[in-house]
Every structure is written in structure tokens, then in C-alpha cells.
């Protein structure tokens, strides 16, 4: 206990400075997040940006800001950034070996990457896993799970790799592929008929093209 008190007495200014940096950085990151979210909403109103893309940009920006704040705190305490990154790389290697031992985690992360690339469904659309009769609206997705909200309000966490092992149905989507036609009939829409009438006929209304024999 005395050692802790002595340490605090010797490093009180550093501790207070760290608290101030963390609080100030947290407030700055909160405002920056709001600004980025507002900017993405304005971009969505002018150009076609998917909700997943906007959410990914916001998460990348926020993560980068927190990493920068951590680097500032480390530098404030006089710790070498190079040595710290070496420690992180070593820790990441150990964690990576542990992940390789758990194939499910790797498969879910890989499936999430393929979902981002191929986009079989979007946020807000309804997905139904046909064999399991699991149905819900997509509200979020991360490296491991896709989050579905059922009609009753309950939340389901579906592993990403299940979308590559099971059949599923996507509804509430307005997207049409280039080869699709009206009502899915497989034929282009027929041209609208042109109203005609015989010249001098009383049935010929005003403004209608009259066909003369």
C-alpha cells in the first residue's frame, strides 16, 4: 500500500496529465464521430453509397482515432513507440496462432469478407434461413456474426459462415439485376397501345390521333 502511495506521489502529475489527455481525446473522438456520420449521411443524399460502406468508414475512422490517442498516451509516459509496436506484433502473433487453432473463428471472419465483396444482402433487408426457419431484418454485421431482429423484437446472432452452408431467402429489396425485366416475366415490356379512330367518327375524342382511311 505504501509503495502505491509513493508511486502516486511521484507520478501524480503524469497520472493527472494522462486522465486529461484521455478525457479530452474521448470528447474529441465523440465529436469527430458525429462529424463523420453527418458527412456520410450528406454523401448518401447526393451519391449512391451503401449503408454497409458508410458504417465501415465510420468504424475505420473511430478505430484510427483511438489508436492515435493510445499512441499519444504512450508517448506522454516516455515509452518508445517502436518497442510498443514490437510488443503488439508479438502479441498479435500469439493471438493469431490461437485463432488458427479455432477454425470456426477464421471461417466466420473469412465469410464476413466474402459477404462484403459479394453483397448477397444489405442492412435493412429481411433474411430467412430456409431449413432452420430463422427470419429477421439485418441490423448489423461484424467479423463473427450477422445480427437479425425478429418481428417480435428479439435479436438473433447468426454466424457468418452459415450463409455459405445453408440456403437463405432475401426479401424487402428493390434491387434489380440488369438481365431482369418487368414482373420477372423474362420479356421486355410491351409498348403502350396507341388509340386510333376513323376520321369523322363521333368516338374520336379531342387530342387523340385520328387515323384516316
Break the fold down into its secondary structure elements and pairings:
Layout: H1 2-10, H2 12-46, H3 51-76, H4 81-101, H5 103-118, E1 126-129, E2 134-141, E3 145-149, E4 155-159, E5 168-171
Antiparallel strand pairs: 1-2, 1-5, 2-3, 3-4
Helix pairs in contact: 2-3
Task: Indicate the percent of residues in helices.
Answer: 40-55%
Q: Pairing-aware structural class of the strands and helices?
A: alpha+beta
Q: For the terminal residues, how far apart are their CA atoms?
A: 111 Å
* Biggest pleated-sheet summary: 5 strands, antiparallel
User: What is the count of helical runs?
Assistant: 5
The helix/strand order is HHHHHEEEEE
Poorly predicted tracts of residues = 179-213
Task: State the main characteristics.
five-stranded antiparallel beta sheet, 50% helix, SH3 type barrels, alpha+beta, 5 helices, disordered C terminus
Describe this protein's structure.
It contains five helices and five strands, in the order αααααβββββ. Strand 2 (134-141) and strand 3 (145-149) form a beta hairpin. 50% of the residues lie in helices and 12% in strands. It is extended, with a radius of gyration of 30 Å. Helix 2 (12-46) runs antiparallel to helix 3 (51-76). The protein has helices at residues 2-10, 12-46, 51-76, 81-101, 103-118; strands at 126-129, 134-141, 145-149, 155-159, 168-171. It has a five-stranded antiparallel sheet with strand order 4-3-2-1-5, with no helix packed on it. With 213 residues, it is of the alpha+beta class. Among the domains are: 13-80; 108-175, SH3 type barrels (Roll).
Amino acid at each position: 500500500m505504501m509503495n502505491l502511495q509513493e508511486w502516486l506521489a511521484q507520478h501524480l502529475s503524469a497520472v493527472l496529465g494522462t486522465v486529461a489527455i484521455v478525457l479530452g481525446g474521448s470528447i474529441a473522438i465523440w465529436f469527430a464521430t458525429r462529424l463523420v456520420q453527418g458527412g456520410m449521411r450528406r454523401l448518401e443524399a447526393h451519391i449512391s453509397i451503401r449503408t454497409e460502406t458508410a458504417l465501415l468508414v465510420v468504424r475505420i475512422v473511430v478505430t484510427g482515432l483511438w489508436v492515435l490517442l493510445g499512441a499519444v498516451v504512450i508517448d506522454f509516459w516516455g515509452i518508445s513507440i517502436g518497442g510498443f509496436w514490437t510488443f503488439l506484433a508479438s502479441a498479435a502473433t500469439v493471438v493469431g496462432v490461437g485463432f488458427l487453432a479455432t477454425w470456426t473463428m477464421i471461417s466466420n471472419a473469412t465469410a464476413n469478407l466474402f459477404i462484403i465483396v459479394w453483397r448477397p444482402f444489405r442492412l435493412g433487408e429481411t433474411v430467412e434461413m430456409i431449413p432452420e426457419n430463422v427470419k429477421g431484418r439485418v441490423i448489423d454485421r461484424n467479423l463473427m456474426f450477422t445480427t437479425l431482429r425478429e418481428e417480435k423484437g428479439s435479436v438473433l446472432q447468426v454466424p457468418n459462415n452459415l450463409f455459405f452452408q445453408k440456403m437463405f431467402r432475401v426479401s424487402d429489396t428493390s434491387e434489380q439485376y440488369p438481365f431482369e425485366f418487368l414482373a420477372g416475366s423474362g420479356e421486355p415490356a410491351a409498348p403502350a397501345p396507341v388509340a386510333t379512330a376513323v376520321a369523322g367518327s363521333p368516338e374520336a375524342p379531342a387530342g387523340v390521333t385520328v387515323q384516316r382511311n
